[in-house]
Known about the structure:
By secondary structure, this protein is of the alpha+beta class. The protein has a single domain (3-163), classed as 3-Layer(aba) Sandwich (Glutaredoxin), CATH 3.40.30. The chain is 37% helix and 22% strand. It contains 6 helices and 8 strands; from the N terminus they run βββαβαβααβαββα. It has helices at 20-23, 38-53, 71-75, 77-87, 104-110, 138-160; strands at residues 3-4, 9-12, 17-19, 28-34, 60-67, 96-99, 118-122, 127-133. Strands 1-8-7-4-5-6-2-3 form an 8-stranded mixed beta sheet. One of its GO terms (cellular component) is mitochondrial inner membrane. InterPro entries: ATP10.
Amino acid sequence: DSQLFPALKARTLSQKEVDLQQEFPGHVTLVLLWIKAYGESMCDKYRLPFVKHFHGEPLAQYYEISALDGFFFKAFKGVIEKNLRKERPADRHDNYLFFSGNLKPIKKKIMENEIVGHAYLVDCNGLIRWKAHANPAELEINHMLDCSQLLLKEAKRTLNSEDKDNFGDLSCPVFDISNS
């Protein structure tokens, strides 16, 4: 069973406020989420093949989410955000979210392991259709790309049909290999 991606509002490194639930309709979205800094390098291993494979595809998008957890880190969120903006390439700023809100509901609903990076493939309805965490195996990357392709095909078909509210039952099951 697919579940809705939890409500999440954050600011991009280009300082635009983003409500992810408003970004999902009309798109297939790879959402990358981490709490610990080394989770970002794990998430890059999902992001890079996705960006390469779907370059120029207007219905495919991704968001990277660096999430702060803990009172100590939240006390320095301004400094941390400024450093992230300085250290990350400008071409990633619009898709790189900095989240310092309440992480508890997100951790409870979709994070199996707080130490590693997480990847979620979210359909046009905001449903998680595929997920993985930690360093991916080649099989996971291939399945992510195949599932993305199926979701894009269905999204295009639906956008071209008269019933734009019905995205159908996609034959792309939730795929989760825990390799941590």
